[in-house]
Amino acid sequence: MFSFLMLIIMNIAVMASIYLSLFLIELIFGVRIDPQSVTGLAIIAVIIGFSGSIISLLMSKWMAIKSMGVRVIETPQSEAERWLVETTHKLADAAGIPRPEVGIFDGPPNAFATGPSKSNSLVAVSTSLFDLMDTKEIEGVLAHEINHIKNGDMITMTLVQGVLNSLVFFVSRIIANILAPKDDNGNPNPFAYMAISFALELLLSVFASMIAMWFSRYREYKADAGAVKIDGPYGIYYALAKLGQIPKDQVALPQEMKAFGIVGFFSELFSSHPPIPKRLENIKKVARELGYNV
């Protein structure tokens, strides 16, 4: 019930911000966008769909540091931290990308990469990862995260999410305009229009999430393959094998960071990561193609 009320409040806020933005655009630039026309609605959908995703991308590194309590290693305080920074930078050099910032956080055995661009990125690992794995396995995890940065996954996920958000907003309002009762002038009843729009957003967002998570799983396979190419198959393979033996609730990152971790769990259709057994098979396949005897 609370989530439904929050959705209504958010949609009212979105609609209010839309009309305020349209008013300011017309007032300042003299450009009038008609939200009742298909073209005008499409423009608004793109603005709404991408604005939140782009803002999240730009703030991603800062939000990760704050939400996860990441301590960025500027001056290593131990041999383990020195090794972590040097190994991450070595892998970045091998991948041909700018060296990311390196951080450490207290939490479940996991790691993630984030940041708005290849030249402004962060790789962070949990302290418990050092208790679970040897250095070769941690290096495999780092190689995986470095390949997320190399592949521009943070940016492509933002674009995918922006397109999906825009489509959900646009399609829900087109259908709502068709289904909502009309007055004598052909204008839809505003309350029915909003109610139908909200319901359709809920429904369409489920399908949009399935598409976004499919793409997320695809990029995990690519990051695993990239780790094999720059660091060999054994580190990432045995790291994932160990993580796969731990109960799910003991390795999960917070919701906002799950898509960027080394592992994630949920119903496969809505999971940001493929099942670990499938990832291990993919790693062996890539390794054999590269000439490793596995």
UniProtKB/TrEMBL annotation:
Q: Which GO terms describe its molecular function?
A: metalloendopeptidase activity; zinc ion binding
Cofactor binding, note field: Binds 1 zinc ion per subunit.
What Enzyme Commission number(s) apply to this enzyme? 3.4.24.-
Top-level class of the enzyme under EC nomenclature: hydrolase
Which parts pass through the membrane? 7-31, 37-58, 159-179, 191-215
Q: Which Pfam families match?
A: Peptidase_M48 (PF01435)
GO biological process annotation, one example: proteolysis
Where in the sequence is the active site? E145
Q: Give UniProt keywords alphabetically.
A: Cell membrane, Hydrolase, Membrane, Metal-binding, Metalloprotease, Protease, Stress response, Transmembrane, Transmembrane helix, Zinc
Q: Which residues bind Zn(2+)?
A: H144, H148, E220
**Primary location:** membrane
InterPro entries recorded = HtpX_protease, Pept_M48_protease_HtpX, Peptidase_M48
GO cellular component, alphabetical, reads:
plasma membrane
Q: Which cofactor does it need?
A: Zn(2+)
Q: Its topology with respect to the membrane? A: Multi-pass membrane protein
Where is it located? Cell membrane
Positions of the Peptidase M48 domain: 80-285
UniProt family annotation: Belongs to the peptidase M48B family.
**Which PANTHER family does the record cross-reference, listed alphabetically?**
PROTEASE HTPX (PTHR43221:SF1)
HAMAP family, A to Z: Pept_M48_protease_HtpX
- Can you name this protein? Protease HtpX homolog
| Source species | Caminibacter pacificus
